[in-house]
Write a structure and sequence with these properties.
2 domains, four-stranded antiparallel beta sheet
């Protein structure tokens, strides 16, 4: 059984964080920033998409919006600054109870030949207060943005296998051989008529042509029989994850 190097384990953990709203401690508690929707998609001919940010708190908040090209390599997410997409306005102060539209726009007219992936990072910027003491928690949202090509909608094609790490714990390794992203949720193991969920909620994304890993938090011997399934791209039903061929 293959082993997961330590740096790959750290990469996988960090990658999972990119799929969730993050609460980052900086220096009073401020968790009032909210965003919708939680994923954006630009289809051919569509020049812009809308993101709504709102302040449900009792004090104003400063918000910064940035866009990054999103790729995966070596089992880890990678973000690079990009000029292919623009956010307007990139900075905004929201009064208590205010709701603001952010437009996410193409910088050019070209439609990509293949699906492209980006991340929209929404940060709550802490206000400077020299008299404040203690911890201040600020929110960060990392929102997937996909640019779709012409033609049929790209589709994922997934293969999964269980691998072990140096601590005797199992990880699931999922490879995407299709041309569309896969969002995995409610990862389950066991017979199709009674699968047991081993990772509830959002697990993570696998971009086309990439392989990602997630800890199963149990020894590999627990997963020797039956297979895995997951909810893919928001579907309500579990989809089986075919087993990857055994290495020769």
């Amino acid at each position: 059984m293959a082993h997961v190097p330590i740096h790959r384990r750290w990469h996988a953990a960090l990658a999972a964080l990119l799929c969730l709203p993050l609460i980052a401690p900086t220096l009073a508690l401020a968790a009032s920033l909210q965003v919708a929707p939680t994923m954006l998609e630009l289809r051919p001919g569509q020049e812009a998409e809308a993101l709504w940010i709102s302040n449900s708190g009792t004090e104003p908040v400063q918000v910064q919006v940035r866009l990054f090209r999103w790729t995966q390599s070596g089992g880890a997410d990678e973000l690079q600054p990009t000029q292919a997409l623009l956010a307007s306005p990139p900075m905004q102060e929201l009064a208590a109870g205010q709701r603001q539209l952010i437009r996410v726009m193409r910088a050019g007219d070209a439609t990509p030949d293949a699906q492209q992936s980006y991340r929209l990072i929404v940060d709550e910027v802490p206000a400077f207060d020299p008299d404040r003491t203690g911890m201040q928690f600020v929110l960060r949202y990392s929102i997937p943005v996909f640019l779709q090509p012409e033609g049929p909608a790209p589709q994922p094609r997934l293969l999964a296998q269980v691998i072990g790490d140096g601590d005797g714990m199992a990880w699931i390794q999922v490879s995407n051989h299709g041309d569309g992203y896969a969002q995995l949720a409610d990862l389950a193991h066991g017979a199709s008529d009674r699968p047991l969920v081993v990772r509830a909620g959002l697990v993570g994304y696998v971009l086309p042509g990439q392989t990602m890993q997630w800890s199963l938090e149990h020894p590999p011997t627990r997963f020797l029989e039956s297979g895995f399934s997951a909810r893919i791209n928001g579907e309500s039903e579990q989809t089986p994850l075919p087993a990857a061929p055994a290495p020769r």
